[in-house]
Records
---
Amino acid sequence: MAEGSLEAPTRLPVPWQNPDFHDEAMLDEELRRVFDICHGCRRCFNLCDSFPRLFDLIDRSESGELDTVESKDFKPVVDACTLCDMCFMTKCPYVPPHEFNLDFPHLMLRYRSLENAQKKLSWADRQLTETDRNGKLAKPFAGLCNWASNEKNTLTRPLMETALGVHREARLPRYHGTTFTDRAGDVPDVNTKAPAHGRKAVLYATCFSNYNDPEIGIAARKVLARNGVETEVVYPSCCGMPQFEQGDIARVAEAAAKVAAEMRAWVDKGYAIIALVPSCALMLKFEWPLIVPDDDNVKALSTATRDIDEYIVDIAKTEGLAEGLAPLDGGVVLHIACHARAQNIGQKSTELLKLIPGNDLKVIERCSGHGGSWGIKKENFEVGLKIGKPVARQARSAAKPYVASGCPLAADHILQGMERIEGDAPVPARAHHPVQIFAKAYGL
């Protein structure tokens, strides 16, 4: 038997269309096989709440082993998984190509896929996943929606907690009346003297940058234009990560086929495809090809896709950056998002911000505790803050004027954690995406 963790992990396609995938007895058998391996290892005990729940469940059982744990008690373990992939990418010694073939996140996905097939997902959970629909509905009433969703609103937030199960104190993304795609016609002048002039890229807007924070996309476009890159903004639909988290794999496959088909013409013309949020980059690069492995459009898109920080760092290394970067007024706390780490590309956000002259950078590579829609739920919010407390504590003690993360949800969650920790320096009023920090350094 080979020693674990001596080879790079490899992900296998998700056989979601195989009838055995939703066979309850076969799923239970696989859960028990994997959980028993995890119980004997326990290397992942500090990653998220799934593993402590699993180990406590086993330790409290009659035999102290998995054989006396009832299958119905597995659900809290599954519910605590945020599909961050950190166990698979950084901790587990038994992932493929090891013969144990252990992929904990995709096993949790399989369990949720069965729940989805059995119509067990709540109405509220389904509504939270409809990011495109919600963004379109909120757009004409952005001000009213932001007033109602503000965590300081003691009138509406208790109602939301009751109706949707969203914790009344969880900070929620804001909406904009003018989306990123609405602003696509505002094309910044391309610097023809930049070393990288001649590059072309499509910005895949992502639902978050499009509806919730268009400034991320605008900052990215300005930085790329300063560096000679011609850009287009394209947004066929959400990448499906919200549905992926709930096990609705068919919806993800539908999104993959739609987006990849529309993007194919740009790929064939030599455009790079840039995702503005790490979760979306992860879906396009890795998850989609595992869900629809025979779709040639998805394969082409996967090869052409880059994370925004990854793309700018490549410009710096290949052609060199355009002049004009200046030191910031104060340092930056940078959180490395889990879905950026799961792309296996290194700390590109760190590399990016180190390109700013004299930048005082504090880097934190640890889970924020948010986990997409998981962290805003009533039953998870306080747990998420507890998981993210080490990150918040480090960020608070660093006492820098900027807090940044490639994951905007994680960034706001970190700010909320910082607000609960005593410190002399004020907590920044808002968080930033790394590309927004980079744009500031350019004076854009």
---
Amino acid sequence: MDSHVTAKKIDWNPILCQIKYTKGHNLPTYTGDLKTALLNHAGLTNHSKGEEAYQLAREIARLTTYSDPEIVYWFSRLISLIND
């Protein structure tokens, strides 16, 4: 199996379960460092395109709600395009 299939089968639920509504925020937020959590969870901490995928996910999310759950969604879609 190639890396695309493996990347598409990552369970994002552990990250999404840590996203909570907090007082003073209208949208749910991740309780820690979202970028670090996503890169670690996807195994892309040292991958040359990991940071780029995260920044692109933030830019895409900025077009709509710009919420942490949306960033997770777009990041999960983008990493499926990364070759190891």
